[in-house]
Amino acid sequence: MSTGQKKSSDATMSEDETLQKINNQTLGTSPQAFPIMSLPDGSKVPTGTVGALLVNLREYDSTKDPERRKELEVSIRASVPVLIRTGLFHLFTPDEWISGGSEGRQLVGRIAKELEKQT
């Protein structure tokens, strides 16, 4: 395999592995505690994403430290594509997330709408 092919393959795996690492760090679990699973359509998603998102949203809402919020936004943003792939936004639309009183929920809704526009 050429270096270019390897980098392309690594980049694809990197997104799932990065989210898996975020999930494990957020939830205080060991590496591989939440494996990457295959959905019926063949796409892969790191398990633990919803749990980690809930923890991050709670902290996002409770902190007023702008630097900490920026760090949390990275983790929250990384989880939204998985929520889209698993169909969560068919149950609760991005607008429903935005209309909630939680700033973290509003952020998730805005990111989901942004990603919808890109597809």
Concise synopsis of the structure shown:
By secondary structure, this protein is mostly helical. It has helices at 3-27, 49-62, 66-85, 88-91, 94-99, 103-118, and strands at 36-38, 44-46. Strand 1 and strand 2 form a beta hairpin.
Folded structure, characterized:
With 119 residues, the protein is mainly α. It has one domain. It has six helices and two strands. It has a two-stranded antiparallel sheet. Strand 1 and strand 2 form a beta hairpin. Helix 1 packs across helix 2, helix 2 (49-62) runs antiparallel to helix 3 (66-85) and helix 3 (66-85) packs across helix 6. Residues 1-13 have low confidence and may be disordered.
What is the percentage of strand-forming residues? 5-15%
Please report the total strand number as a whole number: 2
Helix content: over 70%
List SSEs in N-to-C order: HEEHHHHH
Strand order of the largest sheet: 1-2
Q: Low-confidence parts lasting 5 or more residues at pLDDT below 50?
A: 1-13
Q: Determine the oligomeric state from the structure.
A: single chain
Derived structural class = mainly alpha
Distance between the termini: 31 Å
Spatial extent as radius of gyration = 15 Å
Shape: globular
How many domains? Answer: 1
